[in-house]
Predict the structure.
Amino acid sequence: MIQSSVKKIQTSYYDPEHETMSRERLAHLQLQRLQTTVKRVYKSVPFYRDAFKSRGLEPGDIKTLDDIKKLPFTYKQDLRDNYPYGLFAVPLEKIVRLHASSGTTGKPSVVGYTKNDIANWADLVARCLAMAGGSKEDVIQIAYGYGLFTGGLGLHYGVERLGASVVPASGGNTDRQLMLMQDFGTSILACTPSYALFLAEEGIAAGIDFKKLPIRAGIFGAEPWTDNMKKQIESKMDITALDIYGLSEVMGPGVAMECMEKEGSHIAEDHFIAEVINPDTGDVLPYGEQGELVLTTITKEGIPLLRYRTRDISTLHPEICACGRTHMRMKRVAGRTDDMLIIRGVNVFPSQVESVLLEFGETEPHYLLVVDRKGDLDALEIWVELSEKMFSDKVKHLETLEGRIRHRILSVLNINVKIRFVEPRTIPRSEGKAKRVMDRRDLQG
Ligand code: DLL
């Protein structure tokens, strides 16, 4: 099938049997795999056995897919409490790879993969690449970090599985990334969206004409981003930008991937069961309602997880997609429950602010939300970077723009904020996940 885009992209299914399976067959497969997983963790992971026992639950009680509701949730803290290997369901001799999550405080959560887990992961990432039109002909540059982070190596094995040529650039060293992109004829780029935008800007500043390069698609994820950000990257780099979702606890990149229809990301339902719940009550919400995404792994051997609380806010859409894939889609992640700012009672995600800022198109897409406490009240200041042109503009114009942005945020988010324009290139760029919030409330005691 051919989709129109900036540069023409032809996509195909990597694994048509599983990607287009009827709902009935998929449900059957999911139940079978769920029951196997439940038996496996009951037998091999004391943490789960205890959790089952304290609920009076036995593996045989899981008779239908709906019975998943009876299973306990698993939290990131459970991985930390059982650091490093306590939740593994196989002995270490069966583990061939370890990764760890990017925790900023305390111990990271550690995940282990068996040979089969690595093979499944590579297959799933190959599926994602095919969704973006990837094939053996492609040169795929991976600018996600290699290491304990799952981005680099996760994508890497998928590219090799697909049979394309992998450029394992890893994160950072922007000049070299741009050189490789030109000299090696990169056709697909994989990195965080914030780094993609930075690469695009640096490339343009260095006189690179992306239209003349073979690059035609980008596989961007690992952090929340908006449609407006996507459009910016697409027009600057002359590519089709697609969203890839995942988390190390559940596997890594490739849990879900956006197809060319751009109507959400297909969750690999033959490997994961997705639910959306009310994060406060734990109740499962109907399809289409926004809440916290909860994932159960149904093929993982190393560290199978039941009902893992991702903290990511999204919605699920089970309708069959125009691309022909039957796997349900999750809407772009709005943010994480733990990134959500509560400013005078109003819930604010950085991505909502990003969306408003980029609507204007008059500032740079680099911003920082700075939260302070003034007396008993929280105050939100939004630092927005000016372009070189705007920076030298008339003060009057900037004042008007500041007022327009402030009003728009008030009408969309219902909060009063202060806008502070900052000089070009002063907000720190990230080679990995962007930092969008500076919370100074703790500093003031
Ligand atoms: O970020 C895995 C990954 C690597 C995904 C490369 C995509 C591409 P962690 O470091 O464990 O794993 O962080 C997982 O990142 O719970 C989300 O909050 C966020 N995240 C990942 N993908 C997206 C996305 C990797 N497409 C956490 N949109 C997740 C929004 C995302 N947030």
The domain at 341-443 is CATH 3.30.300.30 (GMP Synthetase; Chain A, domain 3).
